[in-house]
Amino acid sequence: MTAYVGCALAETRSQEGLSAACAAWNWLIAESSLHGPGLGYCSSGPQDADSTTWGLRLAEVIGRSADEFATRAFRHLISYMQPDGGVATFAAADIQRIGLGDSPDAVVGWTGSHNCVTSTVAWLRELSRRSDLHRFLVRTQEPAGFWRAYWWADYEYATAHAIESFQRIGGQHDATEQALRWLRQNRRSASPFALALRLLGMSAAKVPEADAALQELLELQLPDGSWPSSARMQIPPPYVKNPQTQWNWDERGESIGSIIVDRKRIFTTATAVRAISAWLIE
Questions:
Q1: Residue 6 maps to a domain
Q2: Are 222 and 268 within 8 A, CB to CB?
Q3: Alpha-carbon distance 194 to 205, whole Å?
Q4: Which residue has the higher pLDDT, 44 or 152?
Q5: pLDDT of the residue at 61
């Protein structure tokens, strides 16, 4: 959460935002002593590739990629890369250490390649030329143009970040065009989170339809500056490879088998800020 929000603040390119982002990075360095070389979802949980990636993205945006912690975290991130070219979220040993699963098969879902993680990893400059990452994303794109996320209920998350990464490396134009076509046509979700991601993807690709998405998003902003809670994180059981096969989600729970909404509106609002910054800057 801290790394993701730090990225949102840094991407505004305002002095206040950059100062807060630098403070977030310094806090992450201090907290990393609880984890080791990478970052984790919380201080009591295992390290994971997703948290580590957003920490590294924050470091790059604020010019701190050369920090000792960033170089250690990058080396750690590489360990999550899979033979199929994708990136897993967790290592089996780390999950089993906290008592989840007694064999690799019991955690095969959490340790397989995930689009929502791979699409954000591909943005990192040190990995932006890795053809295996790009091939994985091209191969896992749905015929309709979107990417399915493992940890997020909305397909816009992986789709927007794949577009963002492809635009950064200047390649995979066919995949990007298919994804943009889906974003233009898809109205399946009216959530501010999904809308912000649509704006992020279209702004990254500099398409004119981003203007209309921006206006829609601004109309949903609340008086205190936030956006309504709508980022829906899903937590499949560790053995589930395909979350789409999970039908009995607990939408009031807070653990495995649940879909959890960001009740404090922070993740949704940070995503909206990222999207608006992309529109303004691109």
A1: no
A2: no
A3: 17
A4: 152
A5: 97
CATH number, domain of 105, equals 1.50.10.20
Distances (CA, A) of 250 to 46, 106, 236, 259: 23, 21, 10, 6
Our count of domains for the chain comes to 1
Answer whether residue 42 is part of any domain.
no
| pLDDT (tens digit per residue) in 71-93 | 999 999 999 999 999 999 999 98
Q: What residues make up the domain containing 263?
A: 80-281
CB 117 within 8 A of CB 153: no
Tell me the DSSP string of 166-208.
HHHHT--HHHHHHHHHHHHH--S---HHHHHHHHHHHHHTT-T
Closest CA relative to residue 180, chosen from 168, 162, 154: 162
Name the nearest CA neighbour of 157 among 265, 270, 248: 270
Q: Is residue 26 part of a domain?
A: no
Inside any domain, residue 219: yes
